[in-house]
Amino acid sequence: MTTPSDTSDDGILAAEYVLRLLPPRDESAFEDRLVRDPVLMDYVTFWATRLSGLNAEVAEVKPPARARRQLMERLFGPTETRSFWQGAGLWKALSFASAALAAFLAVQMMRMPEPTLPSAVQQLLISEIAAEDQSLRVLAIYDPSEDRLTVTRTAGQALPGRALELWAIAEGAAPVSLGVLPDDPSTILTLPEDLRSQVAGLTLAISDEPPGGSTTGAPTGAVLAAGQVREL
Amino acid sequence: MAQSEDIEDLISRVALGDRTAFSSLYDLTSAKLFGVALRVLNNRANAEDVLQESYMKIWRYADRYMSNGMSPMTWLITIARNTAIDRLRATREGADVDALADRLESRGPTPEQSAVAAGEAARIVNCLDQLETDKGQAVRGAYLQGLSYAELAEKFKVPLNTMRTWLRRSLISLKECMEQ
Q1: Which of A71, A80, A203 is the best substitution to test chain B (most B C-beta atoms within 10 A)?
Q2: Model pLDDT for residues A189-219, shown as the tens digit of each residue
Q3: Which residues in chain B have Cβ-Cβ distances shorter than 8 Å to A25?
Q4: A96 by DSSP, 3-state: which?
Q5: 3 state SS of A178
Q6: Looking at this predicted complex, what is its ipTM?
Q7: Which of A69, A218, A231, B85 is the most buried (most CB within 10 A)?
Q8: Which residues of B touch A70 (CB under 8 A)?
Q9: Are A206 and A224 in contact (CB under 8 A)?
Q10: CB-based contact (8 Å) between B4 and chain A?
Q11: How many angstroms separate the CA atoms of A188 and A192, rounded?
Q12: What is the pTM of this model?
């Protein structure tokens, strides 16, 4: 516990710390204490919060475009022509799918008071491939012991005269087609052999394609939905 | 300026490695952070470097923001401000009495913590206005320009120890004012 006099000293020390007025040695010593002392952290938060009001006086200045370009290159490497798989659609779909999957799993937990998996069975993997607006939702479950990818479409369908094609994307690799989804809402697919060892890291995505699927070996239409594979 | 919740949402996606969210976060907030860095450094080339370095930290430590649960814009600004002050002091080696005294010491990364609430701007300005002009200006100089005690003493033409005493008293008054 801090005594009242410690308290007032630390209160001012915290202000000096936030203002960056402490010499390096004192700053390090303060940080060592800060990690362990929640009261001290509260003081820091108090000052950081109050002083940050002064930022209203700081004018916004648009940085030059090269700063953005250099930053992205430093972080993510040189940009090739951006493949649309790296584009906004896939990531938006993914972040949505995570939420949808969490909701799905929460419901499953309630419905299944006991695990229904035989104990000998290997860990199942699951992916909910969902569109942001829920217009398309596909659940994929992979059973490694049988190498079966069960794909169930629970919402949405292909546009008239178009097809839905399912793709697997390993990190840093090009999408590999797993096939066109049939009209039947449920189907069983087989994963290409070289993907079987890395199922847990895969992203599954569905694109809008001409009937019969893409003829180029790569997706040609919009990404409609995507999801990451994770252990169930 | 974007809504706080939008920025918070973007940061939470950046924490998951979402590059598109990172781009959006940069587009929404970089003008403010560049302004903060420029204010401290007063040099565009250095401020550009600091801006990039700040966003590299943001990319790396976005998950830390989640656990802090603090105001997103202030968290971002704190990173930029601290990075700018580090740069300022690194490029001003020898000019700073405090740094001279501790030349052999190196400092670790500054924990990022900060929060801003609506109304704080008016509040701090109001409380600073209740101080004598010079004393309010000294606090602003420390926060907005990253000035050290030695630099403040020089700027206001008072001995170093007098500046320390001034500023600590000002901080005590400010604390009382802001707690009311």
Answers
A1: A71
A2: 888 888 888 888 788 889 888 888 888 888 8
A3: 102, 105
A4: helix
A5: strand
A6: 0.79
A7: B85
A8: 52
A9: yes
A10: no
A11: 13
A12: 0.56
